[in-house]
């Protein structure tokens, strides 16, 4: 347990989904360098806690996921916000910060704590009548946020630019997952079937992609289910032979997503974060996401850093199954986005109200 500086201001960060773990890691480090205390909570779902453990975070495990049903989602959000009430320090934090935690926003409203939410998808929906005080968004989606009544602070680049600069490749992951270096490695992330923005068309594209790649003798797939019991068991049942032979690998433990992407020859994903991580690392990436395409993904598509797969025939005509040249370094080291976001957090705390 880290020693708390009682004189310093505290930022309460809530990790609500797995991509938030690597995203907030450098932000927390920079905030601590600037003299802030960090209080950390994490929702026990989608490998959030496993990734937090992998990063060595000191956190409180609070709440879980309540499934796809809208009534249960809302009820679960409210219940978790009540659970979070007991985790807030007696000396209330100066800011509650998350990347879309509705439960934290509700708890903050109840306790009178200023809240800031970072989002990078302009179609994200919050709880009716309960909005954060501040939104922090990429400049790319600023035009789509004009109807919001929140205070809005823009930052340059995309959220993945916050943590990709710290990435260092480690080839031990290949041996750990029993990946054959002679094969073409494809990392696949299935669609988020329980998300409010899910479109069933993405599941059709996912199936088509696995069938297409499975027919290629030189291909090995690593599939990262969003949950082991539902998606994981479904994949193991549907493609039992390929899972048994090692053509499809489903990791038995939490893996470093960036490292896996870096060592892949291409990536296929039904969600936004892994697509953008691959784009930030310069790895060929194909999106099977079929919800509303946000400004960030449109930008990446128009700049040739991401290919949108929109119909089943695109799988065989657009996806290029080829080996890529992998450099030894992880990529660029520009921390402009990180520093701007932390500057914004300081400004929000300084100009509360």
State the assembly state of the protein chains. single chain
Query: What is the first-to-last residue Cα distance?
Result: 32 Å
Secondary structure: helix percent: 25-40%
CATH topology of the largest domain: Rossmann fold
The whole-angstrom Rg is 20 Å
In CATH, what is the homologous superfamily of the largest domain? Glycogen Phosphorylase B
The largest sheet, given as strand count, sense and whether it forms a barrel, is: 7 strands, parallel
| DSSP helical segment count | 13
Which CATH-level-2 architecture of the largest domain? 3-Layer(aba) Sandwich
Structural class: alpha/beta
Write down the CATH class of the largest domain: Alpha Beta
What is the approximate shape? globular
Number of strands: 13
**What is the domain total for the residues?**
2
Low-pLDDT parts are none
Mean pLDDT: 91
Can you list the strand order of the major beta sheet? Answer: 3-2-1-4-5-6-7
H/E order of the elements? EHEHEHEHEEEHEHEHHEHEHEHEHH
In terms of DSSP E residues, the strand content is: 15-25%
